[in-house]
Amino acid sequence: MATRKTTRKLSPSKKTGTARQSNVSSEELKTLYKDMLLIRRFEEKAGQLYGMGLIGGFCHLYIGQEAVVVGLEAAAEEGDKRITSYRDHGHMLACGMDPKGVMAELTGREGGYSKGKGGSMHMFSKDRHFYGGHGIVGAQVPIGAGLALADQYLENGRVTFAYFGDGAANQGQIYETFNMAALWELPVVFVIENNQYAMGTAQKRSTSTPELYTRGAAFGIPGEVVDGMDVLEVKAAGQRAVAHGRSKKGPYILEVKTYRYRGHSMSDPAKYRTREEVQKMREERDPIEQVREILLTGKHTTDDDLKAIDKEIKETINAAADFAKESPEPSLDELWTDIYAPA
Amino acid sequence: MATEILMPALSPTMEEGTLAKWLVKEGDTVASGDILAEIETDKATMEFEAVDEGVIGKILVTEGSEGVKVNSPIAILLDDGESLSDTNPASTSASPSAQDAEQTGSQPPQRQAQTVSPPPAAPQSNMSPDWPDGTPMKQQTVREALRDAMSEEMRRDHTVHLMGEEVAEYQGAYKVSQGLLDEFGQKRVMDTPITEHGFTGIAVGAAFGGLRPIVEFMTFNFAMQAIDQIINSAAKTLYMSGGQMGAPIVFRGPNGAAARVAAQHSQDYAAWYSHVPGLKVVMPYAAADAKGLLKTAIRDPNPVIFLENEILYGRSFDVPDLENFTIPFGKARMWREGSDVTIVSFGIGMQYALQAAETLAEDGINAEVIDLRTIRPMDTGAIIQSVKKTNRCVTVEEGWPQSSVGNFISSVIMQHAFDYLDAPVINCTGKDVPMPYASNLEKLALVTTNEVINAVRQVTYR
Predict the structure, then answer these.
(1) Per the residue annotation, which of B165, B196, B216, B451 is the catalytic one?
(2) CA pair distance B187, B211, nearest whole angstrom
(3) What ipTM score was computed for the predicted complex, to two decimals?
(4) % of residues, chain B, pLDDT over 90
């Protein structure tokens, strides 16, 4: 077994926006902007359809956290895998799943990724290497390490991103997984999306040590904390983590500090935090606005260009919503299919 | 163009609510995300945010209104620069968009209501022999048969691998994996730390990722720590993914009581796992069945619970000396033909069933003894066919009485052979107590051959 790295904390970048963007092309900045905006608009539409009764059950929106998945997907290669919890719409869009299929799953229709049988929390795409969409807090983390075990066994050079939240970070199975992932040097990146609230419980009320990136220290897993509202920071950290896994050095932890603007789910009144706290985050740290500003001040693009992008995304989302409304409910025979794979 | 703002559904069960307070007034400009109103649902007071940007043209429902139906218009939003008079009042008062929402919104295109029956329970049975007449046989213990099944399948398919506590260097806590590390190496025979929850999840992920893991639990009692991964992750994912991905995985290990290991090490999980759609559940008694069924389990693309028994590991039986010998799931085995009563059992319960049948035969009562071998899918056809002949049935298992496998069998018999029954079905089970440690109490807690004999006498009135 290789010697263990000590846990380290990268100091937050002191570079300003213009300095950081120097090695990022205008094209890439526009792509990042577009990918984040797609998620934002998709989620707003999902909230709207929920309000109309078209989406049922639990629906957990990703608004505010867009830079996390978009930054990390920018660091991934084709064939890499990803798995997350039930706040999963952003991950699916970021890894290239079709907004129509995702939205139609939210409305429980035949055209959804799971033919309407999974819903918002349980969606998968074998083609896009998206392994769910899991409704049990923390359960996706050992599964993610298992995906990495399969890649290591099959020697295919792939890396798995296993996402979980600050709430899940206190689950016991995470630490069982950290131990085995480090022991077996599995190519997995543990991404802790720290949005600071485990449902309605603020981190300081649930968590003895707030520095979640150090949680792998006892197992020799290096970790770093990342500004999750800054998509370029997330991408850079993602590249370091992926390189670590790809070069057979084992697991890596990224604690990505982020913030969700909406409640835990659609039915959460979010009384555990002030309106001012949310408003401040939106006005000062919004991940999409940050890139928009770089794009405009750095003269990477024009206002008209951005308007065209906004329009294109709006059309994509409207088409997804229309598809999700028009796609029929699953055939009644579907009740009895997919219980067992044919032997 | 003016749009109507509709009363939102803000919880999975909300049908109407109270518009408690408006936080905007007519003429206000709003942006996406601004709070428009506070709405009381059946659970909480929620803030209602704007989705689109525009100017509040008219408030249609005053604050304090109760019983406002979901999807009814509560305000009109105008585009910047648009005035209310630009909009067609008829279109808003007649609320075509609300109707629209009624039709295309909360009422999705409905499938015609019709009854869909589950796949038929197949009350037909296939009692064909498991191997051809004249096949050479060899004596093997159940332990050796299980090992051979694994090593043959590992030679056949390089994605098959074994993981669990003490399976590699220790050669298996019960020596079932003896020799596998030497032949296949540590990549394919992996010792895990004592963390069932974690390594079960890892194995499920490996199955999603293209491998065919065999997970050995040192006993199924310890798998209770991992049961969330077995049921929520392994059993349900094929369904939840619309058939895209499932878990080809075998969970195996000793189940039920051993001897004097008391309550936390002695539970029979047959009924628990047999409850779960998405799982297949196997519980062999004899060595040939252990081998043929384990090979089938490893090749099956679904999660299989394979329940072994510590006491049976050392028992020797005839095993066919055949290459590529498998036994299909859902096929019972007739151990003894008879006409007076049907005794149905599986796993170690078979030893009580067979002993009872032998004693009863001395008294002239001929019992037919059926070994289910797989609990899910269950060969209910074999049971029904036999009960139609004998008109009486006794089930035997080691697990607890309430919601037992025997309870399920009784209900199947009532549905499919009620008119054939000459006596109520009796379920012989373990006693309804945690397993005691003391030798005399443990004997009392387990199902016994005498109990089976007495049950048969009761249903045959002899």
Answers:
(1) B196
(2) 12
(3) 0.93
(4) 78
pLDDT of residue B52: 79
Question: Residue B209 above 50 pLDDT?
Answer: yes
B105 has a chain A CB within 8 A of its CB? yes
Which residue has 């006892």 as its token pair?
Answer: A218
Higher pLDDT, A145 or A4: A145
Phi, psi angles (nearest 5°) of residue B355: -60, -45
- What residues of A are in contact with residue B249 (Cβ under 8 Å)? none
Q: What pLDDT band is residue A77 in, cutting at 50, 70 and 90? A: very high
Nearest CA in chain B to A109: B108
Question: CB contact, 8 Å: B120 with chain A?
Answer: no
Q: Taken in order B22, B26, B28, B30, is the CA torsion positive or negative?
A: positive
- Supply the mean pLDDT for chain A: 93
Answer yes or no: is pLDDT of B105 > 90: no
CATH class of domain segment(s) A17-321: alpha beta
- DSSP H/E element including B181: helix B180-184
Whether the ω angle into residue A328 lies within 30 degrees of 0, i.e. cis, is no
The continuous run of DSSP H or E covering B393 comes out as strand B393-396
DSSP SS3 for A99: helix
User: Which residues, other chains included, contact A312 with Cβ-Cβ below 8 Å and sequence gap of 6+?
Assistant: none
Report the alpha-carbon distance of residue B249 to residue A25 in Å, rounded: 46
Q: Is B12 exposed, middle or buried (0-12, 13-18, 19+ CB in 10 A)?
A: middle
Q: CB distance from B396 to chain A under 8 Å?
A: no
CA distances in angstroms from B152 to A340, B164, B247, B448, listed in the order given? 25, 19, 21, 36
What domains are defined for chain B? 3-104 (2.40.50.100), 137-320 (3.40.50.970), 333-460 (3.40.50.920)
pLDDT digits (tens, 9 = 90+) for B234-274: 999 999 999 999 999 999 999 999 999 999 999 999 999 99
Contacts of B409 (CB under 8 A, 6+ apart): B344, B378, B380, B383, B393, B395, B425, B427
- B425-454 pLDDT tens trace: 999 999 999 999 999 999 999 999 999 999
Site from A180, A275, A286, A325 to mutate, B interface, most B CB atoms within 10 angstroms: A180
The one-character DSSP state at B229 is I
Catalytic residue selected from B152, B165, B216, B265: B265
* Shortest Cα–Cα distance, A298 to chain B (Å): 26
Strand partners, A339: none
User: Does the annotation mark B196 as catalytic?
Assistant: yes
Report the residue count for chain A: 343
Give the gap in angstroms from C-alpha B303 to the nearest C-alpha of chain A.
9
Residue B59 has phi, psi (to 5 degrees) of -100, 120
Nearest to B320 by CA among B126, B140, B61: B140
pLDDT of residue B83: 75
First to last CA, chain B: 87
Q: Could you tell me the two tokens for B230?
A: 């077995």
- Count of Cβ atoms closer than 10 Å to residue B442 Cβ: 17
This model's pTM is above 0.80: yes
